[in-house]
Amino acid sequence: MKERVRKVFRRLKGQGGFTLIELLIVIAIMGFLIAMIAPRLAKVASGASDTVCDTNQMRLRQVLAAYTEKTGQLPNYLTSLVCHDDAGKAVDPSTQWDMTKEEDGSKGWYIDNNNKVDGQEVLSKDFYAMTKLGLLTLDQAAADELRALGISKIYYLNVNQDVKAMEYIGNEVKKLNEGIPKHVAGKNDFMQEDDVKAGTAVLAVGFGDNHKLDPTAGPKKIGHPDRIGCIVLGVGPNSELVREGQIQHAGLCPNGIKRGDHFLYNNYNIVVPRLASVADKIVAAYGGTNGVKLTFKNEETGETKIVDIAKGQGEEVWQFTTFCPEGCNPMAADRPVWVLDKVETY
């Protein structure tokens, strides 16, 4: 083939142009080369998006670390990822996920069902698969703890059928899933501001009022076992970090943008340190007296991780972390590889 290419170029030099046969040969060679290179280029592009996402998160963590060092608190005016229905009732995303399936279990409008023909859902399916979020209603003790961490105001995401533009908080609105609630003023206003108090609704990792990981019945798998019970709040355009100029605007995940036809919410998130009052609820939910040990096994490496949650034991403000809107964070697995293997109470 090399000799044939040389002949083609020698003829071009002597005759001033290609014959039709020679052009076809060149095109065939180029097509062959492109077929070889294209998969590698696709991997490079995908890797670049992952790198940008990790960079965005690392920058957010640096800003948060500086903020907590200066103030001893987390930023205010974060986004609760809770959506209310047209009667004003908070919707639990765990009720819209088939718990017999670990990674593609959406059965409603809250979580991406991987079918853009149905329109856009609210959250990424990968986000939910990694976090298994549950609806958590704050009692007075939890509200007091959250306020002590600096979070006294939140905005409910409240995606509804009247939402026309997500602006900095997510992907462009194209076609909404028809199951998304209708808008009723005062019941489910988009980005509705509220005080943090008893009754405030939030989403928490792998736990909720009527939701927990179960080794005998789904769900069992999660991406971040050490964050069980931690509240997840979004960094939107109204957050204190943006208001005070700590960051210019609420960042968007490049991988989430690529799947903009599938889901709406595409902001980065702060994972709040586990509250002592939530630890109490987790212990009680698993039938413990003083604590519970959750043993997880990595299905890929066989590694074991024990998450020990003691009654009355909360985490410090500096123990926050971040998630991208697809549930990942830097240097961690990008799929739910941790399987709940055993529950021990004490």
TrEMBL record:
Domain of life assignment: Bacteria
UniProt xrefs under Pfam families: N_methyl
InterPro entries, A to Z: N_methyl_site, Pilin-like
Spans through the membrane: 20-38
Keywords associated with the record: Membrane, Transmembrane, Transmembrane helix
Protein name: Type II secretion system protein
Organism: Ammonifex thiophilus
